[in-house]
Design goal:
This protein is of the alpha+beta class. Helices cover 58% and strands 11% of the residues. It folds into 2 domains: 60 residues; 110 residues, no CATH class. It has 7 helices and 4 strands.
């Protein structure tokens, strides 16, 4: 038979292990709750930002001349003018080493205001739809020549952004700068493409394209 002292030692050892296991379970449970809470906070923060962006776009689409710099700021996108070669409209780049969400649109300062506005809207469209394709370390964001195609060899050229991406960014820009309700109202007032372009500070060619889209 085992001596009483040995039974006591075994009982104490089992009790210690049970306490340790219980403490470990409580710690794990607490850490899981903290992690779940943190994930929930991040998710809610993302949801709030998405709601802010959606409201900002709706406000911009309710006016004939939206403030594009103010709109970009809602998306954490800075806008800078810079003198570039004439056949380059600009680009969008990641620039914040500490926060990869921060981007910057560089627009050709030598271009007319109508083209600069469309370039900003086009680049914001790339940010809106193609943000996950940007790579600061590889120097890949999105750029645009005068036809709003990617210009290989220029800063922030991105081989992942092709013709389909260009069309989507262009559509975003047109719907932002020439919202359907405003365009229909101006067309009903009898304004032609030239007068609409002047009214909205856009090129006549872009205004004509938008009018044709709405008529079809």
């Amino acid at each position: 038979m085992f001596p009483i002292a040995l039974f006591a030692a075994i009982a104490v050892n089992h009790a210690r292990r049970a306490n340790e296991d219980d403490a470990r379970r409580r710690a794990t449970s607490g850490a899981t709750r903290i992690e779940d809470d943190r994930i929930g906070e991040i998710g809610e923060s993302i949801s709030r930002q998405m709601r802010r962006e959606a409201r900002a776009i709706e406000r911009a689409r309710s006016t004939e001349m939206p403030d594009l710099v103010e709109l970009c700021d809602v998306f954490d996108v800075a806008v800078r003018d810079r003198t570039l070669e004439d056949d380059l409209c600009g680009w969008i780049e990641e620039y914040d080493l500490l926060d990869s969400r921060r981007c910057r649109i560089v627009v050709n300062a030598s271009h007319a205001e109508s083209r600069r506005r469309f370039t900003i809207a086009h680049m914001l469209g790339h940010h809106y739809y193609h943000r996950d394709m940007f790579d600061r370390r590889a120097g890949q964001g999105a750029n645009a020549d005068r036809s709003y195609d990617q210009k290989e060899g220029s800063p922030w050229w991105n081989p992942a952004i092709g013709t389909a991406c260009k069309r989507r960014a262009n559509t975003f820009a047109m719907q932002l700068l020439m919202p359907k309700p405003i365009m229909l109202r101006l067309m009903e007032e009898g304004l032609d493409a030239a007068r609409i372009a002047e009214r909205l500070c856009l090129s006549e060619r872009v205004a004509r394209m938008r009018m044709e889209m709405l008529r079809n």
